[in-house]
Write a structure and sequence with these properties.
Elements (H helix, E strand, L loop, with lengths): L1 H16 L14 H27 L1 H8 L4 H26 L3 H31 L8 H29 L3 H27 L5
Helix pairs in contact: 2-6, 2-7, 4-5, 4-7, 5-6, 6-7
Length: 203
């Protein structure tokens, strides 16, 4: 009987000692549903960027010529703006964890303000292209350029709304969830920027 009890205790101990997968949603900061949304959005953008890269292989000259009309310095500056916004969002989470609500809100305000600057500069860039007669029907490059960057801009707008909601209710869970989405917006742009603006330069 003692041997049976001992075996049961050892079995129970093994169950409790079983390591938790580092990929479990429960281990991620914020709401697990937000991470499901983030992963799904990354997959959508990933598919679009793969389509862009594949299409470029079939239209190398068209893509090379199309890139000469892109405003690389402006896009570079806008990249810095968005990454700095992400830094403010990360700082907001730090303040939220130590219950510095006012500072967390101020950091979110900084992140949101820079997000608005990014959005304004992106719209200005669109106006530049349209003034040159470059629209979604110009060629496949600009069709995908407007679709992918426009879809990203829609996420920037949605992200700004999320940051605003989080600023109203800056609990630690809300801060982690909202800023996770904003960092996803950063990450996607960091991938879009070199693929659209820098690939094929000088080739």
């Amino acid at each position: 009987m003692d041997e049976i009890c001992q075996n049961e205790e050892e079995s129970t101990e093994r169950v409790y000692r079983q390591p938790v997968s580092p990929w479990a949603l429960e281990n991620l900061p914020g709401d697990p549903m937000m991470w499901i949304l983030i992963v799904s959005e990354i997959l959508v953008f990933g598919g679009a960027l793969w389509a862009f890269a594949g299409n470029e292989l079939l239209n190398v000259e068209i893509y090379r010529e199309a890139r000469t009309h892109l405003n690389v310095p402006l896009a570079t500056f806008n990249t810095i703006i968005l990454l700095t916004s992400g830094l403010f969002a990360a700082i907001a989470v730090r303040f939220g964890r130590v219950k510095e609500v006012a500072k967390a809100r101020l950091s979110l305000l900084g992140a949101g303000a820079l997000g608005v600057v990014f959005m304004a500069l992106k719209i200005y860039e669109y106006k530049e292209k349209l003034a040159l007669g470059l629209n979604v029907e110009t060629n496949t490059f600009y069709t995908l350029y407007y679709l992918v960057t426009g879809f990203h801009l829609a996420h920037v707008i949605f992200g700004l709304i999320i940051l605003g909601i989080v600023a109203l209710w800056p609990t630690e869970d809300n801060l982690e969830s909202g800023t996770a989405f904003w960092h996803m917006v950063d990450l996607i742009w960091v991938i879009i920027f070199p693929i659209f603006y820098l690939m094929g330069q000088g080739v």
